[in-house]
Amino acid sequence: MNVFLVQPAEVSEKNPHEVETLLQRDDAFVWVDIPEWDDEAERLLVSTFGCHPLVITSCKERNFVPTVHSYEAHTFVILHVPLAGEAGHVHSLELDQIISGRYLITVHGPRNPAVPLEESTAETRGVLNRMEQGRFRPRSPYELSYAIGSAIARRQSRTVRMVANRLPQLEQQVLGSDFRRPEDLLEQLFLLRHELLIARTMAAQAHDMYVRIDSLERFIAEADRPFARDLSVQFDRVRSVADGESQFLFGVIDLYQTRVTTKMTVAMERLAVIAAITLPVTALASVYGMNVIVNTRTHVVQLVAVLAVMLVISGLLLRWTKKQGWW
To answer: How does DSSP assign 67-117, residue by residue?
Structure first.
């Protein structure tokens, strides 16, 4: 757990035991960052900040849907960040925020052991570095939360751009494919679609959350609501860009599936032609191969007549399939 005292001129790290004293200061606000949940964090949120039991439960457990809840003392927000993993898997990194006029608490939700802690805390560390270097001086917890939310929007946007950068290469593979192993290319396309849809869903849900926050006139001061409005616009922009890339990707997938289906249809037609041509030959051969027809010698005239019938029927079938455009 990391505790920071954010002042107009500087940000300094403090001992977690000083939180209650720091909250009494009028010239600064407190930022508590909890990279990993533990008993000490739970005691602090319950005894010092008086968080609702539902908030404690949400911070301890993994949440798959963004949420916003407002209480008299603070507002609780859950957001998610996408992280591409192995074999097309996309991790959902959770960030919980408890925002008040006197403090900001950021809780990094339970994470997959395969995800490094540095990835889970990238947004908060980035904002902290800007503050330590003097490039960002938040005047309120809502402004600090705004900076973290903007970092999340940028990361979602970066995920969409990464997908967009891989699309042209896959499009070229689709246009130049020989269709010998269509399942490999289709799998790449659908995994890319999966990654894009996750980023799009996270952005759309975050947009809805901040639209809701902007409407909470009873709990959030008018001076702080513009931050929520701007974040809603940022996440909506990410959603819009993801929608555009989705349209392009879906078009590429439809093109490839259509070409694969067409090639299979042509192949089936040709197989049908072969089967139709050989059917009368097989039928006549079967009749003459029956045990009920026993010949002690070869009847040349009869053999020629049967072969002629086979050729005529096969020729007529070839002519008919040609008229149908099957070959």
So the answer is: EEEE-SS-EEEEEEEEEE-GGG-EEEEEEEEEE-SSEEEEEEPP--TTS-H
Q: State the total domains in the chain.
A: 2
Contacts (Cβ under 8 Å, ≥6 apart) of 228: 210, 211, 213, 214, 220
The answer to whether 276 and 321 have CB atoms below 8 angstroms apart is: yes
pTM of the entire predicted model: 0.78
Using 70 as the pLDDT threshold, list the residues of the chain that sit under it: 87, 178-181, 284, 287-299, 303, 321, 324-327
Q: Is residue 171 situated within a structural domain?
A: yes
Q: Does residue 238 share a domain with residue 281? A: no
User: Is position 102 within any domain?
Assistant: yes
Q: Are residues 60 and 202 in the same domain?
A: yes
Q: Domain check: are 200 and 306 in the same one? A: no
Secondary structure letter of residue 35 according to DSSP: S
pLDDT of residue 172: 78
- 269 in any annotated domain: no
In a domain, residue 185? The reply is: yes
Alpha helices in the chain (DSSP H): 19-22, 39-43, 53-60, 117-120, 122-132, 141-175, 182-214, 225-288, 300-323
Question: Is the Cα torsion angle 284, 285, 291, 293 positive or negative in sign?
Answer: positive
Angle among Cα 168, 93, 202 to the nearest 5 degrees reads 60
Yes or no: say if 30 and 37 are a contact pair by the CB < 8 Å rule.
Answer: no
Q: Do 282 and 160 share a structural domain?
A: no
Question: Under DSSP, is residue 243 helix (H, G, I), strand (E, B) or coil?
Answer: helix
Query: Is the CA virtual torsion 214, 200, 66, 16 positive or negative?
Result: negative
Range of the domain at 293: 275-323
